[in-house]
Design goal:
With 280 residues, the protein is α+β, with helices and mostly antiparallel strands. Among the domains are: 11-54; 67-105; 171-276, Glucose Permease (Domain IIA). 28% of the residues lie in helices and 26% in strands. It has four helices and twelve strands; from the N terminus they run ββααααββββββββββ. It has helices at residues 31-54, 68-102, 119-123, 131-143; strands at 11-16, 23-29, 171-174, 183-188, 192-194, 199-207, 211-217, 222-232, 239-240, 245-249, 258-267, 270-272. It is elongated and about 115 Å long. The termini are far apart.
Amino acid sequence: MTPRKKSKFKYNLILLNESTLEEVFRIKTSKLTFTLALGLFTLISFTLLSIIIFVTPLKHMLPGYADVSVREDVLIEAQRVDSLETITQNNQRQLLIIKNIIADNIQFDSIPTLDSTDIEKWNNLPLIAGTAENEFIKQYEDENAFNVGYDNLSSSPKEEAIVFIAPAVGSITQHFTTNNNAITIVCPANTPILAPQDGHIILTSYHPTDGYTIAIHHNNGYISIFHQLGEKLCNVGSEIKVGEAIAFAGSKDNKKQDSQIQYELWHNGVAINPEDQIVF
């Protein structure tokens, strides 16, 4: 008996005519043939996909292939998103301060605006030293009790002198008095208002008739407060350098008429005459 020859094709794909059951198409294959065909199809597909990506603008979507301008735009947009997030957080803090002002929840040790706080409260603001400060003052007095000099005339160490610059070029039409803590400076509209000393912005508020109010906290307990500003150039929390523009005087659309701003200078909760510290 002749042994049956073993077929090398183990798999057949047959297409039949449903009406006549006649064989229309037949494919014979094996595991090796199927593997080779699948590998060839994968290679061709990968080659075509690579050609499509590298000869079309799709290549700019791949890491390392983006144009320099595209990467710069991405960085700029990312910084803009961070800036918007910071502005949003500052606006939320400012809204919280406004809510506390309306609800009369602002404590005396905070930094309120003059519109929401009686001036007499500032003049009567108590400066209470802590335990560590009292111990330091007592030790300083004991060590210098027998030293003759200017330092013995004061009960606390001397503060470092701070030099202020004029916040605007103009003429003073109203001076500091006991009933008016602010001086009035008249200057051309759109005049830049400068920071008189280094510090950071602690308040920016707006009133439809009085314009912007900006407060700057300086070193050694000094605070500058500006009223009736036309347009602000800073936000709460911004670090400000001396001479840096923080706002404009009056409206930028009205450049022919003079505008006036009000400037106050406070030291340790007490209003002082700005003309004693600044040469205008």
